[in-house]
Amino acid sequence: MTIDHYKQTDEMDLRQTLDHHANMFFVIHNDEVQPYCSMVVGKLSVQLGFTQQDMITAFPVEIQDAMKGKEVKFRYHFKQRCLCIYPSPIFHNQKVIKLVGTAMDITPYEKAEQTIEYMATHDKLTNKASEPV
Question: How many domains is the chain partitioned into structurally?
């Protein structure tokens, strides 16, 4: 077996692994004209029908910030789900050439935060907003 064979096999295995992962993975290239998304994979992307075009158009400000080399993390609401998105810049010669990132469904955590916030600000017996102390 040659090294090229192993590289090709590893690439196929990685793609299969990413396709079957619960989260969503993406790659966005820093094109001169506008960013281009070459890959959106993972079970979450299939469940939501999230496309390569969605990745570019859904959150342009955050993508621009990441393309400037900033490490960003943000929430995005899509089809009644809350996603936590982490685009990470990849540099070559001190220039961002692409972003690789993940997105996770954090809807249950967001709902828990809302419940805690409500409990902290409302009277337990009357469900009315609590008076500030």
Answer: 1
Amino acid at 121: T
Distance CA(18)–CA(64), nearest Å, equals 25
Q: Is residue 121 part of a domain?
A: no
* CA distances in angstroms from 35 to 40, 60, 71, listed in the order given: 14, 9, 17
- Could you read off the pLDDT of 74-109 as tens digits, one per residue? 999 999 999 999 999 999 999 999 999 999 999 999
Contact 25, 41 (CB under 8 A): yes
- Number of alpha helices (DSSP H) and beta strands (DSSP E) in the chain: 5, 5
Tokens (6 digits) for 54: 């969605």
Contact 15, 31 (CB under 8 A): no
The model's pLDDT over 31-64, given as tens digits with 9 standing for 90+, comes to: 878 889 999 999 999 999 999 999 888 888 999 9
Q: Residue 64 falls within a domain, yes or no?
A: yes
